[in-house]
Amino acid sequence: MSILAWIVVGLIAGWLAGMVMKGGGYGVVGDIIVGIIGAVIGGFLATNLFGVPGAVSGINLTSIVVAFLGAILAIGIVRAISPGRPSV
Lower CB count within 10 Å: N or C terminus of the chain? Predict the structure, then answer.
């Protein structure tokens, strides 16, 4: 997957995850970072736990959904271990 595809998928997935996880997003750069981390986590889990090879393989709906679910997981983990922040 090209760097441009990672950025586009990361932006979409990070923005969606920010909206779902009770927030207004994290800004463009923050959404891209959250989405890319989500794509890595989601792709790893999809491949190793569910046997889906190439779950994040370009700008398509499957990649966005996997990255979105991974981003939600990443945001949830960070909020759970972050001291002093209210867990919603």
Answer: C
Torsions phi, psi of 62, nearest 5? -60, -45
Domain that holds residue 46: 3-81
60 three-class SS: coil
Flag whether 9 is in a domain. yes
Length of the chain: 88
The number of distinct structural domains making up the chain is 1
* 87 occurs within a structural domain: no
DSSP state of 52: -
Q: 29: which 2 tokens?
A: 């750069």
Instruction: Give the pLDDT of residue 13.
Output: 92
pTM: 0.84
Q: How far apart, in whole angstroms, are the C-alpha atoms of residue 9 and residue 36?
A: 7
- Classified as helix, coil or strand, 85 is coil
Residue 27 lies in a domain: yes
